[in-house]
Amino acid sequence: MVEVYSPCGIVCDDCDWFKGIKEPHCEGCKKVKGKPSWGECETYPCVKDKEIEHCGQCGAFPCQEFMTRYDPGEGPVDAVIRAGMLAYRKRHGDEKAAKLDRRIRS
């Protein structure tokens, strides 16, 4: 079962910072209210203002802002993969989406 799944589509349970393997430890976007150690998340307040669980539930998804927010180490393909996973997550739920995400990224 997925314990933490971020509004932007990251499976926190799979993240080395969330698991405490890398420092500084991150407690997940929801817990820190969109203010992780690296700065301030632009996605979190958008989702919060719209009163939705994640970007995939937004009527404007995938918006231009979402598609420009990605891990620089992974490049724009990161946003494309997360967009697809959020669409899948909306239709099939967190647990199935997390399982699929793990298979894709392994």
Terminal CA distance: 18 Å
Mean pLDDT: 89
Counting helices, strands and paired strands, the structural category is mainly alpha
Helix content percent band = 40-55%
Largest sheet: none
Number of helices: 6
What is the strand tally? 0
Descriptive labels:
106 residues, mainly alpha, 6 helices, globular
Task: Explain this structure.
- The protein has 106 residues and is mainly α.
- It has one domain (12-105).
- The protein has helices at 16-19, 29-32, 43-50, 64-67, 77-92, 94-105.
- Helix 5 packs antiparallel against helix 6 (94-105).
- The two termini are 18 Å apart.
Which helices and strands, and how do they pair?
Layout: H1 16-19, H2 29-32, H3 43-50, H4 64-67, H5 77-92, H6 94-105
Short account of what is shown:
The protein has 106 residues and is mainly α.
